[in-house]
Design brief:
- By secondary structure, the chain is α+β, with helices and mostly antiparallel strands.
- The protein folds into two domains: 2-81, Glutaredoxin, CATH 3.40.30.10; 88-193, Glutathione S-transferase Yfyf (Class Pi), Chain A, domain 2 (Up-down Bundle), CATH 1.20.1050.
- The chain is built from nine helices and four strands.
- It has helices at residues 10-21, 43-48, 67-77, 88-104, 111-117, 121-143, 155-169, 178-187, 191-195, and strands spanning 2-5, 27-30, 56-59, 62-65.
- A four-stranded mixed sheet has the order 2-1-3-4, covered by helices on one side.
- Helix 5 (111-117) packs across helix 6.
- This is Maleylacetoacetate isomerase.
- It holds the Pfam family GST_N_2.
- Its cofactor is glutathione.
- Belongs to the GST superfamily. Zeta family.
């Protein structure tokens, strides 16, 4: 497999965690979203992913973009360890939390949106994350065990950790979100989350390395 990724992309990070958890080795091709006006806009990368976004994964003779589509494919082809619970109710909760983050928070504070916000980008990102986290904190109070849904790592957790990192980058006060904070801390202790961290990627700038 070949993963097209950017060290700081939260969507790429979700996929790196899934690959690490499932023990799938891969080659990484960095796509710098800032350098050269954004390498994702090159003709070469557009041919690979017409949405001009990372991540993209070449695997089993196909190319998949969109992080949840990639994670779902990995789940179906490499079912252990599972990232979706067997219980249909818990599985629905995992998908709900994942969608809450990947549709309701992350795209609103994404690089392409922030570029258009000009001087207000920090304030905009903080507002988007805060309103999303207020809802997420309430949801997790009903679903969480050690992790987002019960005590097994799931797709929801793969989405949570990168989003908390975004929140910290945009200086969001995490005080009002004790459940999110507790789960994030527990997940960051797991090896798959450590090795996939933005501070430990081949394309991480020297000053941001762990």
């Amino acid at each position: 497999p070949i993963l097209y990724s950017y060290f700081r992309s939260s969507c790429s990070w979700r996929v790196r965690i899934a690959l690490a958890l499932k023990g799938i080795s891969y080659d990484l091709v960095p796509v710098n979203l800032i350098k050269d006006g954004g390498q994702q806009f090159s003709a070469e990368f557009k041919a690979l992913n017409p949405m001009q976004q990372v991540p993209a994964l070449k695997i089993d003779g196909i190319t998949i973009s969109q992080s949840l589509a990639i994670i779902n494919y990995l789940e179906e082809t490499h079912p252990n360890p599972r990232l979706l619970p067997q219980d249909p109710k818990k599985r629905a909760q995992v998908r709900m939390i994942a969608d809450h983050i990947v549709s309701g928070i992350q795209p609103l504070q994404n690089l392409s949106v922030l570029k258009q916000m000009g001087e207000k980008k920090m304030e905009w990102a903080q507002n988007c994350i805060t309103s999303g986290f207020q809802a997420l904190e309430q949801i997790l109070q009903h679903t969480a065990g050690r992790y987002c849904v019960g005590d097994e790592v799931s797709m929801a957790d793969l989405c949570l950790v990168p989003q908390v990192a975004n929140a910290e980058r945009f200086k969001v006060d995490m005080g009002p979100y004790p459940t999110i904070t507790r789960i994030n801390k527990a997940l960051l202790e797991l090896e798959a989350f450590k090795i996939s961290h933005p501070s430990r990627q081949p394309d991480t700038p020297a000053e941001l390395r762990a």
